[in-house]
Structure to design on (270 residues):
């Protein structure tokens, strides 16, 4: 029997997940429920995709077998208190940034079945990176279902809660950082006379290929980089300029800034 999945929140991340689930046939449109603070959004998605738009969060929880919590951190406590009674022991999969399992448990009924999850937007193409909390309160069947659900949208990594925020700032924020790099490479190509679409395609596919080299080989990224840098060649000249410009330090600073912001979100909601 197909489980009915409910998404509280229908923003970009939620859409990336449920659009992929529909594309993969993991869930039928009529078994996918959505609610959002923007009724026009849910109605549009319901019309476009054949989903079930719910008038409020409580009615969604009552209908669904599994609930995905996909709201902004600032609204999380209020939504949890709102659905507490209706949720009971139905599985709750939270993709709320910065909200630890302890924080979720503090706002919900004792004995609730919950899992902390952090996906990323490439999920819509089946190339996502999803973090699952190693500490959770799901039973074995529910956890296996959650793993299967997020395996539909890409790779799945089981992680201790203490490492969650750090990993989120790489996999969750990382796509934006890498889009920035693709845009910069594309601009460089345009500066040298390439059509913009050609420059972006070359940059994006190069990043895809480089990522697969890291994943599929047993080599350290530095080794792969060194293999491209011929003595006295063009690549090493470019690498020197990247080091002079502090690109490595900028990436470290970007991830660090995102991490400290995530930590503040966690501490503010305790």
């Amino acid at each position: 029997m197909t489980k009915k999945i409910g998404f509280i929140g229908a923003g970009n991340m939620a859409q990336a997940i449920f659009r992929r689930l529909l594309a993969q046939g993991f869930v039928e449109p009529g078994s996918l429920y959505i609610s959002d603070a923007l009724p026009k959004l849910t109605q549009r998605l319901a019309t476009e995709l054949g989903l079930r738009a719910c008038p409020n969060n409580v009615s969604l929880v009552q209908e669904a077998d599994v609930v995905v919590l996909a709201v902004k951190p600032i609204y999380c406590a209020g939504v949890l208190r709102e659905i507490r009674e209706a949720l009971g022991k139905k599985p709750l999969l939270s993709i709320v940034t910065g909200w630890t399992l302890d924080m979720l448990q503090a706002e919900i009924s004792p004995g609730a079945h919950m899992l902390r999850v952090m996906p990323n937007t490439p999920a819509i193409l089946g190339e996502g990176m999803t973090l699952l909390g190693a500490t959770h309160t799901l039973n074995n069947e529910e956890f296996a279902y959650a793993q299967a659900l997020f395996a539909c949208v890409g790779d799945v990594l089981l992680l201790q809660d203490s490492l969650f925020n750090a990993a989120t700032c790489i996999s969750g924020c990382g796509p934006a950082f890498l889009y920035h790099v693709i845009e910069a490479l594309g601009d460089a190509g345009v500066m040298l006379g390439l059509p913009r679409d050609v420059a972006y395609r070359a940059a994006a596919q190069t990043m895809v290929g480089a990522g697969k080299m890291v994943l599929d080989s047993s080599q350290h990224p530095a080794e792969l980089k060194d293999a491209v840098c011929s003595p006295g060649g063009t690549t090493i000249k470019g690498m020197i300029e990247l080091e002079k410009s502090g690109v490595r330090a900028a990436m470290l600073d970007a991830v660090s800034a995102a991490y400290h912001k995530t930590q503040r979100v966690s501490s503010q909601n305790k």
Q: What stands out?
A: The mean pLDDT is 94. The first helix runs from residue 12 to 24. The first strand starts at residue 5 and ends at 8. Residues 1 and 27 are 11 Å apart (CA to CA).
